[in-house]
Amino acid sequence: MKGKITDQESWDHGKAFGMVLALRKYLEQYFEFVKSDYLEKLTRIHDLDLVEKMNDSIFSVNRSREDFELVLNAVNNCYKEQVKRNEKQLNTE
Predict the structure, then answer these.
(1) pTM score
(2) Are 81 and 44 in contact (CB under 8 A)?
(3) Residue 3 banded pLDDT, cuts 50, 70, 90
(4) What pLDDT is attached to residue 40?
(5) DSSP assignment of 4-60, as one string?
(6) Mean pLDDT score, 62-80
(7) Which of 89, 82, 84 is nearest to 40 (CA)?
(8) How far apart are the C-alpha atoms of 71 and 64, rounded to whole Å?
(9) Can you give the pLDDT at residue 1?
């Protein structure tokens, strides 16, 4: 045993530590889901103009949270545009 619970303060500390570990695991799983979702969207975009648009977006940003959200939005918007183009192409054939 590493430590023994002797009072309310040590109980609260242990409880907080356990909750932080659980939250960390949740966030790791959530980010893994988001990562796989966006990588899947990225692989489905194949029109050059959309890829260039994303490229410009991705390589013109810093590593701040707001800039990362811009990158995710660019991927999402280009993916939606690609889906529209694919549907339109299927309807014209």
Answers:
(1) 0.75
(2) no
(3) low
(4) 97
(5) ---SHHHHHHHHHHHHHHHHHHHHHHHHHHHHHHHHHHHHT---HHHHHHHHHHHTT
(6) 90
(7) 82
(8) 11
(9) 46
